[in-house]
Amino acid sequence: MADFHADSLPPELLATGISLKLQHYPEVLSPEVLTAEQADLWFEAHTENFCAIGGARLAALQQMAEHYPISLHGVGASLAGPEPLNPQHLQWVRALVQQIKPALISEHAVWSAFDQAYFADLLPMPRSELALQQLCSKVQQYQEAVARPILLENPTHYLRLKQQMPEPAFMTELCRRTGCGLLLDITNLYLSQNNCAEDARQYLDQIPPQLVGELHIAGYSADPVEGDALLIDSHDHPPNQAVLQLLDYALQRFGARPVLLEWDDQIPTLQELLRQRARVAKVLQPYQEVLHAAG
Length: 295
Fold this sequence. Notes:
Elements: E1 16-19, H1 25-28, E2 42-46, H2 56-65, E3 70-73, H3 87-100, E4 104-108, E5 111-114, E6 117-123, H4 129-146, E7 151-153, H5 167-178, E8 181-185, H6 186-196, H7 200-205, E9 212-217, E10 221-223, E11 227-232, H8 241-254, E12 259-261, H9 270-294
Parallel strand pairs: 1-2, 1-12, 2-3, 3-4, 4-7, 7-8, 8-9, 9-12
Antiparallel strand pairs: 5-6, 10-11
């Protein structure tokens, strides 16, 4: 299996995608709803929502995959957790990948399960050599199951803890040892900067461009008690101007990449989601033009 390199990204994916939501299926599967402005649209589907044998939901995703590029984004593997990967989960993911043939596959560099209990959050890990070794082993196991390199997403931080390794160095070494790539969540970096005084631009400056396969962007919320001192990765608002500016900085460094507008709560209509996608697409457009001029 070849290591991930950004040069291997499908050209049709170097555009702005949106989260795939159940309530939007009928419209998305009606071609007249989408205009020429959405000609380069792609969708991200949460892997665990489709790990089933048959059924209407999986059939709809298969139908969509015939018309749009699909990225599968896992949230349940708990790759950074202390326990072995769930073999049944890996079998489900492998079967889904074989059926859908997604353009990208990604997961999180976090833990979300312990002692057979699953938590409703994606929790950051200690960044030590031992933790890195354990994470690398599980990433390799996951990649062997899907027979291709995957992308790993950086977590959001709400507390500043003592760590043995800076996160950019940790993630870069993870890629070197396993051949995976990175999904950089720009909003996560912005929130970690606010919550823990972690410099988001300095983080981006330390990541080798060839490792970056996708960028995420989303809205966030202030904690109801702490207010703006603690920002929550809620995915329930449009991204604000500060997050869009950080996205632009990332694109200056890495060049055109697949950019996903995430939206997982208080989900708007498809037309409003596409309108917000257009805001993000305007940030990406100059970098697409540079790529096309060079090609």
